[in-house]
Specification:
Number of strands: 8
Distance between the termini: 56 Å
Largest sheet: 3 strands, antiparallel
Strand content: 15-25%
Shape: globular
Strand order of the largest sheet: 1-2-3
Helix content: 25-40%
Structural class: alpha+beta
Radius of gyration: 22 Å
Oligomer: single chain
Number of domains: 2
Order of helices and strands: EEEHHHEEHHEEE
CATH superfamily of the largest domain: Enolase-like, N-terminal domain
CATH class of the largest domain: Alpha Beta
């Protein structure tokens, strides 16, 4: 009942409107699927995303070759394997690819399949997905970091830093962390409006005001934290995802910031 019969993939579109891989894993009388979208920027050492760069019909963005690899090589390799042995499934995928950065099969193909297997295992056991990751009873939700101002590849503004985030250090629970972030975000929205700037959002939901100064973005967040009644660096901390690879200029062999 838990043996894989086949793995089927298809090309779908993510929230940015870009093609990505959806994989569906089948056992007898059950199946589950997973989608593997990607970020706007990619680090040098990140796992490889396989796209059809020569397919002009999809502007070089299609994932049809990755889909084909799932439907042929990966499906054949995983047929007959138990969905309840995630380590073996992942080891088979890694060995089948055989490269450090997953350049043969593509991480987008491999991850979609791996996630679908894990979801199907939980579904077959009639358990919530999170309960299949640990046997402990003291589960705790991780506290969120909120991406509140977007720049870089995530927004059409002049900010070079890609993500300006806040971390609710004062929170003692997940719900309190959400409340703190909510208050700061709402005050940030008001501050941006008061400056006559747009509160339109970037690719990942943070505000994308038409500013070009990273210091100005940081000042806005500091002001929003203070306006919310919190202390910057104590109650709420500012975190950055610089996406430094996007700043690298090959011709000049330097990071332009």
């Amino acid at each position: 009942m838990s043996k894989i019969l086949k793995v089927k993939a298809r090309q779908v579109f993510d929230s940015r409107g870009n093609p990505t891989v959806e994989a569906e894993v089948y056992i007898k009388n059950n199946n589950a699927s997973a989608i593997c979208p990607s970020g706007a920027s990619t680090g040098t050492f990140e796992a490889f995303e396989k796209r059809d760069k020569n397919n002009k019909r999809y502007l070089g963005k299609s994932v049809l070759s990755a889909v084909n690899l799932v439907n042929t090589k990966i499906s054949k390799k995983l047929k007959g394997q138990s969905i309840h042995n995630q380590e073996r499934i992942d080891a088979l995928l890694i060995n089948l690819d055989g490269t450090r950065q997953k350049t043969n099969l593509g991480a987008n193909a491999m991850l979609a399949v791996s996630m679908a297997v894990k979801k199907l295992s939980a579904k077959a056991k009639k358990l919530p997905l999170y309960k299949t990751f640990s046997q402990k009873n003291n589960f705790q939700l991780p506290y969120p970091l909120m991406n509140i101002i977007n720049g870089g590849a995530h927004a059409n503004n002049g900010l070079r830093i890609q993500e300006f985030m806040i971390r609710p250090d004062r929170a003692k629970s997940f719900s309190e962390a959400m409340r703190i972030c909510f208050v700061v975000i709402k005050n940030l929205s008001k501050l941006i409006k008061d400056k006559g700037l747009s509160t339109s959002v970037g690719d990942e939901g943070g505000f994308a005001p038409m500013i070009s100064s990273n210091n100005q973005a940081l000042d806005l967040i500091v002001s929003a934290i203070k306006k919310s009644g919190f202390v910057n660096g104590k109650d709420v901390s500012i975190c950055l995802d610089v996406a430094a690879n996007e700043l690298y200029k090959k011709k000049k062999i330097l990071y332009s910031f």
